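Severity: low
Component: inverse-folding endpoint
Summary: output formatting inconsistent between runs
Steps to reproduce: submit the following structure tokens with default settings.
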């Protein structure tokens, strides 16, 4: 019976090298407006988009152990891979205008994104570094992500009620992540001087593992708001009240199975272990019990969970415009939030994670008031000042509070959720000066400060080997800084010349942050005070754009870079892990031979930059995304 189950599993999973085809993208949109009568206008717009391409990449991963005085490499991986993606999207928007005062719109969106990621890596542990023997690790990860959402909303002006405004909306969405056949397997290999395998055998100590997982989300939200204007001698005031409701449910399940092989290279049939994966696990070898195969449950952690959350919110605000010179806004929002996240054992029971958590730890109910205020002073016809203060909240995501393992989709690092996470209240204060010229040039300069209560931070756990991270609340934190934005045409260089078709735009943010985080039974942060995760001391973006006066050509060169930032906190004497600056340079050129036709050339990551993480001045993660070129043709009628 066990062999019959194994035969039902897909085993044509050998990896080979092949040339990839150029990618393809296509978009089509069609729409029109229909005047049904003098008072009724109907509009429709439908669009479809398709993208298919293969993205090659290389990755480098290192796991460190020790402390700042003595650091050693525990594990090292060099990985090459190809991610073959197919993306499809479709939308249908409908609108009905009834006179000048009423409009009803619907929006339907469908997204489907598939990723077929195949990788091969050479892995060396502390025992094999510098030796000819190593591990050759194969990974095959296929997943499908889909989303369908429907929304209807209405806008109504009530003339008989002093031009009051009433808006309403309702939306429903369903999403799914389905990974029906992920596989990893390992060979023991002997490397030559060029680091290429010269012999190999399937590693039966680390059995090939299949993972089948599925996650489904369903959400609904609806709301309304009513605004009533009041006119005074030198001021216009608008009072607005409203209500919003949001709910979401989630089911996430995963099954891990292993091909346990009772065979060694020295056995009479041991030569089979040097063959490709599909040849080792062929129908004949399974039916004849040649390799001593046993299909086993390989689950090690609770990975299934169900969750639900609801949020009721009501608000009231006042917006007063004093003779187009001063503008004052004040509002307050009340939220009643509930959430429950239940980890499920393979037997279908609620897990207590080894007795660590009580049932009450999986539920949260909180409410609160969130006020906001802003004041705008129009100093001149071209300049104005803004001052704002508010209280907001950041709640942990569902997977961050679910005590299950999941992979970061960008880095592939293993993360664990934490049911004990608390929400983070944030107190915001900012001031900004803005300038807008009649020619379209603009400049702004602002300062901001955020006081964060219990910020959420990813930290490496004490008890876990390797790079396994979990989310924890720091005690407190703050962020402050300055930011500047500008847009400047270049006609001042030489009037009546080609420079009139150029403009430059950009922004710069500089600042600092600090959190205080204490050790507990699971974490021992090396730095109890440090910068906030993901926060750079500076971020810069600048673009140079060209729009020809004859409307035939346009081009944009965009450069952005960020200062180093903490990817996650270090433990036990090892420093925090820093993501190094990434210098991104992208270029787009468009040619419009007719009013209906366009040809566009895009180039992404022209500098060939690599994403890099460092710890103790040692590179612990690197991924080279390569450089991408796209040629696009479009026609409009």
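Observed output (run 2 of 3):
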């Amino acid at each position: 019976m066990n062999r019959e189950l194994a035969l039902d599993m897909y085993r044509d999973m050998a990896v080979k090298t092949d040339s990839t085809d150029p990618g393809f993208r296509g978009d089509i949109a069609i729409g029109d407006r229909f005047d049904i009568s003098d008072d009724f206008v109907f509009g429709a717009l439908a669009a479809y988009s398709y993208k298919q391409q293969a993205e090659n990449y290389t990755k480098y991963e290192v796991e460190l152990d020790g402390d700042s005085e003595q650091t050693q490499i525990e594990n090292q991986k060099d990985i090459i891979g190809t991610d073959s993606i197919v993306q499809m999207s479709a939308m249908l928007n409908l609108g009905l205008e009834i006179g000048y005062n009423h409009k009803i719109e619907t929006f339907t969106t469908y997204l489907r994104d598939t990723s077929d990621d195949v990788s091969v890596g050479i892995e060396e542990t502390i025992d094999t570094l510098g030796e000819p023997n190593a591990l050759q690790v194969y990974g095959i990860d296929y997943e499908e992500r889909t989303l369908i959402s429907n929304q209807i909303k209405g806008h109504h002006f009530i003339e008989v009620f002093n031009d009051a405004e009433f808006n309403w909306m309702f939306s429903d969405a369903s999403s799914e992540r389905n990974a029906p056949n992920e596989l990893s397997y390992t060979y023991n290999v002997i490397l030559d001087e060029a680091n290429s395998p010269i012999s190999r055998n399937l590693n039966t100590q680390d059995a090939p593992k299949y993972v089948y997982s599925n996650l489904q989300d369903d959400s609904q939200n609806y709301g309304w708001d009513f605004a009533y204007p009041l006119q005074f001698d030198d001021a216009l005031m608008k009072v607005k009240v409203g209500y919003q409701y949001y709910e979401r449910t989630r089911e996430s399940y995963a099954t891990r199975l292993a091909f346990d092989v009772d065979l060694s290279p020295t056995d009479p049939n041991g030569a089979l272990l040097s063959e490709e994966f599909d040849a080792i696990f062929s129908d004949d070898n399974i039916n004849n019990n040649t390799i001593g195969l046993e299909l086993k449950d390989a689950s090690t952690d609770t990975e299934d969970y169900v969750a639900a959350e609801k949020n009721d919110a009501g608000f009231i605000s006042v917006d007063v415009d004093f003779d187009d010179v001063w503008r004052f806004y004040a509002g307050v929002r009340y939220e009643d939030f509930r959430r429950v996240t239940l980890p499920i054992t393979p037997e279908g029971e609620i897990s207590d994670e080894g007795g660590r958590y009580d049932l009450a730890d999986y539920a949260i109910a909180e409410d609160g008031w969130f006020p906001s205020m802003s004041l705008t002073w129009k100093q001149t016809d071209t300049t104005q000042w803004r001052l704002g203060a508010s209280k907001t909240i950041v709640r942990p995501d569902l997977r961050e509070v679910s005590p299950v393992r999941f992979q970061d989709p960008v880095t592939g690092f293993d993360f664990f959720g934490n049911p004990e996470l608390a929400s983070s209240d944030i107190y915001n204060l900012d001031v900004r000066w803005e300038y807008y010229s009649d020619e379209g040039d603009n400049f702004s300069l602002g300062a901001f400060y955020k006081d964060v209560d219990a910020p959420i931070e990813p930290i490496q756990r004490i008890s876990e080997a390797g790079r396994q991270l979990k989310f924890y609340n720091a005690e407190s934190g703050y962020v402050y800084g300055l930011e500047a934005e500008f847009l400047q045409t270049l006609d001042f260089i030489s009037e009546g010349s080609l420079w009139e078709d150029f403009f430059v735009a950009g922004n710069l943010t500089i600042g600092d942050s600090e959190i205080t985080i204490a050790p507990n039974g699971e974490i021992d942060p090396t730095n109890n005070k440090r910068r906030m995760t993901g926060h750079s001391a500076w971020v810069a973006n600048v673009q140079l754009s060209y729009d020809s006066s004859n409307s035939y050509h346009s081009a944009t060169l965009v450069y952005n870079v960020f200062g180093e930032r903490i990817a996650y906190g270090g433990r036990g004497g090892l420093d925090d892990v820093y993501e190094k600056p990434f210098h991104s340079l992208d270029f787009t050129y468009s040619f419009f031979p007719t009013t209906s036709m366009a040809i566009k050339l895009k180039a992404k990551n022209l500098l060939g930059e690599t994403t890099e993480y460092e710890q103790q001045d040692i590179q612990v993660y690197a991924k080279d995304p390569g450089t991408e070129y796209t040629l696009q043709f479009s026609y409009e009628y």
